[in-house]
Design goal:
434 Repressor (Amino-terminal Domain); 6-stranded parallel beta sheet; 41% helix
């Protein structure tokens, strides 16, 4: 059994006091470059790993933040995670990434693991609006660890939130397609227990009712990662006789594009397509896919700022809801750009 390396071992190896080693590792005091270099060389040689939980219990914090997202394969969450990592590293924090894969039990498991590891705070994109991955007290607040919600919100839980107005964005999306001359617009979404999808469904339904064209069968609800999704999309398009589709996210849109190509419909002449999230590949298509683009960089940066404020100030702050403008993006290739901003 290997002996566990301690800060004292690092001190003996580099020839400096444990206090100096601690200052280098925690960035708590300016240390001469040559001294810092020798300390870090000793850390690397001995493969020293600080005990984050012990550090946290001493009130120094673990200098670690957890992020729980629902699917790292989605471009939106990949961009969010990368920006969070960049922003917190500037402040001396490390990141632990957890992917719940839209699974509530997995989300709860990761939340418990992050808490056990003594992270200073969590950025969370909740799986289920009705099921928080933690216990809440009578005030419906989670008191054990600071956290900020991004993109999605939990029902009846008081916590900071950063995202867009999904309801208004969806409503505007439908209105835009009608202005373009389309007559029958459908929506493809994931289940409404996901906050973003719930709000996008509500926005779509209101726009359809205001136009006098609402029909329940014009909404198709898919299951995450189902092998039958493309077959369902194919049957739905053929049976509903739509001439435009709003897709709940870019993952759904890519499946729809595959089906439309197989059916042989031309975009935008025979069918229009609008997607939430402006996938980076859309600009390489030879036909226009309208998109609702979310400000991923701003969402991530503000979420980090709010969380760090909770961690470092330790003040009781009323929950804040930061709603950022989305962009309606149109065009093809180099002519692709913002048509309008959607704030709310």
């Amino acid at each position: 059994m290997h002996k566990k390396i301690t800060i004292r071992d690092v001190s003996r190896e580099c020839g400096y006091s444990t206090t100096t080693v601690s200052h280098v590792l925690n960035n708590t005091r300016n240390v001469a470059w040559e001294t810092r270099k020798k300390v870090l060389e000793a850390v690397k040689k001995l493969n020293y790993r600080p005990n984050l939980i012990a550090r946290s219990l001493k009130g120094k914090g673990s200098k670690t933040i957890g992020i729980i997202i629902s699917d790292i394969r989605e471009g939106f969450f990949a961009e969010i995670t990368k920006t969070v990592e960049i922003e917190i590293s500037k402040l001396g924090y490390n990141l632990i990434l957890c992917d719940s894969e839209h699974n509530f039990k997995k989300e709860k498991f990761y939340f418990d693991i992050l808490h056990q590891k003594g992270v200073d705070g969590i950025i969370l994109a909740p799986v289920n609006i009705f099921k928080p991955p933690f216990r809440v007290n009578s005030d419906l607040k989670m008191t054990q660890i600071p956290f900020v919600q991004i993109d999605r919100k939990l029902k009846n839980v008081n916590a900071d939130f950063v995202g867009i107005n999904n309801f208004l964005s969806s409503k505007r999306a439908v209105e835009y397609l009608y202005k373009c001359g389309y007559k029958s617009i459908g929506l493809i979404t994931y289940p409404p227990w996901v906050y973003t999808m719930q709000q996008r469904i509500k926005g779509y339904v209101l726009a359809e009712k205001e136009s006098g064209k609402y029909k329940k069968q014009k909404i198709l609800v898919l299951n995450y990662d189902s092998a039958k999704n493309k077959e369902m999309i194919n049957n739905w398009i053929k049976s509903t006789k739509l001439d435009a589709i709003v897709c709940g996210n870019d993952e759904i849109c890519l499946s729809v594009l595959s089906v439309i190509e197989k059916i042989g419909l031309n975009i935008p002449e025979e069918i229009g397509l609008l997607s939430f999230d402006d996938n980076k590949w859309f600009k390489f298509l030879q036909y226009p896919v309208v998109a609702i683009k979310q400000p991923t960089y701003a969402i991530a940066k503000i979420a980090v700022s709010l969380l760090i404020e909770h961690i470092e100030n330790r003040k009781t702050v009323l929950p804040r809801e930061i709603i950022l403008p989305a962009e309606l993006v149109t065009g093809v290739g180099s002519n692709r750009g913002v048509k309008e901003y959607i704030s709310g």
